[in-house]
Amino acid sequence: MIKKLLIANRGEIAVRIIRTCKELGIETIVAYSEADKDSLSLRFADKSVCIGPANSKESYLNSRNIITAAALEGCEAIHPGVGFLAENPGFAREVEEAGIIFIGPKAEVIELLGDKVKAKQTAIKNKIPVIPGTKDPVDDEDQAVEQAKEIGFPIIIKAAAGGGGKGMRIVRNEKELKGILKIASHEAETAFSDGRVYLEKYLENPRHVEVQILADEKGNVVHLGERDCSVQQNHQKLIEESPSSGVTPEMRKAMGEDAVRLFKNLGYRGAGTIEFLVQDKNYYFMEVNARVQVEHPVSECISGVDIIKEQILTCSGDALNIEQKDISLHGYAIECRINAKTPGEVTLYLPPGGFNVRVDSFLYSGCKVSPFYDALLAKVIVFGDNRLEGIKRMQRALDEFILEGVETNISLQKSILAHPLFRKGKFGTDVLSHIIKEEKN
Ligand code: MV4
Q: Which of 115, 198, 235 to mutate for ligand 1's pocket (most ligand atoms within 8 Å of CB)?
């Protein structure tokens, strides 16, 4: 068991990681930027080390400073959290070369999964359904027109180095294709220094469903069911729930088995997610997230498994201490992300509580919300016997939530929870745009 771990992250996820480390008896060192000197994670950690100025390029993305801090403090492991360096294969490699454990999969695995074309080819080899499209990046305009006609319009152009919605373009007909292809490839080149793009059939208003995986270095892999993340705005998730109202028991079993097979063959370790698009009774591989995710508490609620604990232990060489047959998924869980609309001082913070309510946050009364980082302030997670009970409990929790001084999206969350489209449970990734349109009328 490792004794000392450095957390190379901030905000609620740093607090979340410290909490599990305390329970495991692991000493924590939190690496922080100058802007975060008063952050809650510094109070909860055993020790803190400043790794640079507010600008994340010089702090949370500064691999040299982070690794030096970990080495000087005698840390045996680095937890990258989510975002920042969590899926950077170069960072994972540097950490391991410094003789420190990277809490995540091996650098080669992160690298393979970061290439969306290679990831999709790996899914195909593992007999996982994929969206019809080109097997390789397009390298010729005329050939692309032929390929697109074969796939059938509308099609979507995706960047091989993209993911998470970056660098995507929808093409509705043949005459637009060549022009948009040039733009998409140019954008990909600018954003990722990799202009390779590929084509897929465009699915209208699918659901976004992902399966949570845990794996050890001995080839043991389990899944903790799915999360539905269809309620999103500009690729920012707002609500996640499990189980998904669009997934049948048969689909759940097949998706889970597909996920486990893929991660076994990848030689994956730690926590990971496979993302699918779901339309009617069909599901299609989209990409793999080689990290723990913001919405992991939803799966913790329905499975009773501490995902961060299993992630840390498996990445430090322990065997998973759970088998698939020991995992039973119970009830329903939902998470609402509470975001700041503006930076500023939180003058009063009184989070909700009560039966089956969990709040993961780094806020306290008097803390400052920095303009330098993402807007996530708190995650409210509630658990219930079924979807309707869970939604009602979330409404109660959000009604209780007192958060003054900064503007938040709590009122938007309340209108989603109350909306018939959401309550019926029959929706896709377009759902929020419909709800917002109605609000404006
Ligand atoms: C798609 C798609 C429809 N058809 N691919 C967005 C995130 C990135 N990982 C892939 N995404 C999509 N890929 C095909 N062939 C629709 C989306 C998409 C989406 C997916 C998940 C969650 C929200 C989304 C919002 C818009 C588009």
A: 235
CA-based nearest residue to 224, from 299, 296, 292: 299
Ligand 1 atom nearest 287 alpha carbon: 9
Beta bridge partners of 33: 52
The CATH number linked to 174 is: 3.30.1490.20
Q: Residues in the chain with pLDDT < 50?
A: none
Atom of ligand 1 nearest to the CA of 155: 15
**In the prediction, which pLDDT does 439 show?**
85
Which residues make Cβ contacts (< 8 Å) with residue 297, sequence separation at least 6?
333, 335, 358, 360, 379, 381
H-run or E-run covering 344: strand 344-345
Beta bridge partners of 383: 333
| Minimal-distance CA residue to ligand 1 atom 24 | 429
Which helix (H) or strand (E) covers residue 357, if one does? strand 357-361
Say if residue 195 is in the same domain as residue 296.
Answer: no
Residue type, 407: E
| pLDDT tens sequence across 337-381 | 999 999 999 999 999 999 999 999 999 999 999 999 999 999 999
Whether residue 176 sits in one domain with residue 77: no
Indicate whether residue 286 lines ligand 1 (CB < 6 A). yes
* 369/221 same-domain check: yes
The reply to whether 309 falls in a domain is: yes
| Domain co-membership, 258 together with 380 | yes
Note whether 283 and 138 are same-domain residues. Answer: no
What pLDDT score does 410 carry?
98
Q: Cα angle vertex 108, ends 106, 114, to 5°?
A: 105
In tens, the pLDDT along 52-82 reads 999 999 999 999 999 999 999 999 999 999 9
**What domain range is 153 assigned to?**
132-201
Check pocket membership of 152 for ligand 1, CB cut-off 6 A.
no
Is 291 designated active site? yes
Beta bridge partners of 91: none
pLDDT of amino acid 272: 98
Structural contact between residues 34 and 52, judged by C-beta atoms closer than 8 angstroms: yes
